[in-house]
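ok so for the tutorial part 2 we go from a plain amino acid sequence to predicted C-alpha cells. step 1 is just haveing the sequence, like this:
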Amino acid sequence: MKTIDIHSHFFPADIDDLDVRFGEGIWPGFRRVSEEEGMITLDGKDYRPIYDACWNAQRRIEEMDKFSVDIQIMCATPILFAYAKPSDQALACAQLINDEALELCSFNPGRLKAMCQVPLQDIDLACAEVSRAMQNGHVAVQIGNHVNDKNLDDEGVITFLQHCASINAPVLVHPWDMMAPERMPKYMLQWLVAMPAETQLSILSLILSGAFERLPENLKLCFAHGGGSFAYLMGRVDNAWKERDIVGKDCPNLPSSYVNRFAVDSAVFSEDALDLLIKCSGVDRVMFGTDYPFPLGETAMGSLVRNHSGLNEQERAAILGENAAEFFNID
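step 2 — the prediction. this is what the C-alpha cells look like for a chain of 331 residues:
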C-alpha cells in the first residue's frame, strides 16, 4: 500500500542572513555545526538543534526508504512564518522559502512534495502567493493557527480560506507561537500542553464563530497533531453548546457535527488516541503524519498505523496513503 507522510518539515541551510536581507529585527537564522548538524537561531541566539534531513534531500529519501515511506509532503518550520513582520518583508520571505522548497523537492519530485507559506497578515498578498505557489508546483499551503492576535475566524483569514477553496489549494493548519510561554519555560511544556490547546482553539474558533457556514464545503482543511485536544474534549464542547446559550449563539449546529469539514493527521503516538481520533473524525479524515524530522515526531515512521492491531487492511491503507492522495491531488 502507498504511504504518504503529510506532515514533515524542512529548514533551508542558507538563510542565515534574513536580518541582512529584510532589515533589522528578530529573524530566524541557521548556523552550520557540522556537515550533518545545524542550529536554528532566533535573534542571534540558539533556538533548536536540527540535523541534515531538514535541508538534505538525499538524507530524507534514505530515511523514507528505511521506513517504507513512498511520498513525503514538506512544509517550512513554523518559526519562518514572519507574520509579525511588515507584509512586504513577509512576502519576500515566503517566496524565498517556497522557492527553496521546490528546489529541495527537485531531487526526486515523484517522492518529495512541498507546501507553501504565505504572508497571512496581508490577505491580498497571501492569496496572490498561494496562487503563484500552486501554479509552480506546490501541493498545498501551510498556515499558522493564528496570525498575531487573530484566530482563524478573522475576516481576512476566512477570505483567504475561501480563496484556497476556489483554486483547490489544500490547507494544513499548524500550531505555532504558543500561548503563555512565561508559564511553561521548562520540560518542553509549550509543545506538550500549549500546542494541543492552540490546535483545539483554532478548530473551535471556526466552529463556534459560525465560520464553517461561510466556507465552501469543498475547502480541504487539515489540522496537525491529530487536531490537538479537540477529539478528547469534543463532548465537553457539545455539552456547553447545549447548556449555555453564550457558547452556541453564533454556531447553529452541534459542534461535533462539523467534524466532517476537516481532516487531521495521525501524529498522536498511541493506539488508544488513534482509536479515539478515528471514532471522532472518521477513518476517511485521518491521514498519516509524522512531524519528521523533529524529535517529538514519530521516529519509527508509520509504526503506529502499521502495527495497530485494531485496524483492518482497508483502514490501514486509507490512513497511510489513500486519504492523502485524494486530499492533496497526488496521482
